Amino acid sequence: MNRNRPPSPLVPLAVLALLALSGCGGHGQSSAAGPSSVEPATATRTPEESTEAPSPNGAAVDPCALVTKQEAEKLAGTALDPATPVRETCTYTGPVTGPTAQVEIFVGDGAKKYLDIERDLGHTLRPLAGIGDEAYAEDEAVFLRRSDRWVSIRLVRLNDPAENRTPLQELARKVATRI
Fold it and tell me: With CB atoms counted within 10 Å of each terminal CB, which end of the chain scores lower, N or C?
């Protein structure tokens, strides 16, 4: 005897649940995109993704030109990968084989916002005399302003932050002359 029974009402619910979950996991990426679709970041700039931050006087500042790879490596105390520019930022990262090191340069509103967040969090900011029109330092970063343009330089290392104080200040002094 061959009986046909109707499909369970749970089958359509299970299909809907799977579809809903597959739409939530991508964080803006296509769920069909695999690892092979991700291209490594390069220092090549396209007009749409210029790293130059415009200024009121029409001049622009390239964050990767403010701190050279050699200066970033000196600050980090290790070899770093080539710069990765994204809009008003530039990042030099340590190789995946280590040691842990990263130098980040922010120009414009992002640099000012970073300073504002540090203040809001109650972090200790030391004023730095003779650097730009205004400058501050904390354990892992320096912030400087010349005219109406802000720049911040952040160093990530696994060492005593006191060791980074003088090198960060020296680099901030150089960068202030390039803005």
Answer: N
54 is in which domain, residue-wise? 48-176
pLDDT along the chain (179 residues), means of 10: 58 49 47 42 42 52 96 97 96 95 97 97 96 97 97 97 96 96
Structure tokens, 151: 């720049």
> Rounded to an integer, what distance in angstroms lies between the CA atom of residue 96 and that of residue 151?
27
Name, in order, each residue with C-beta under 8 angstroms of 132's C-beta and a sequence gap of 6 or more. 144, 145, 146, 172, 176, 179
Closest CA to 66 of 102, 101, 107, 94: 107
Asked if the structure places residue 172 within a domain, the reply is: yes
**Could you tell me if residue 21 is inside a domain?**
no
**Whole-angstrom distance, CA of residue 112 vs CA of residue 160:** 26
Q: Give pTM, 2 decimals.
A: 0.68
Residue 149 is assigned to a structural domain of this protein: yes
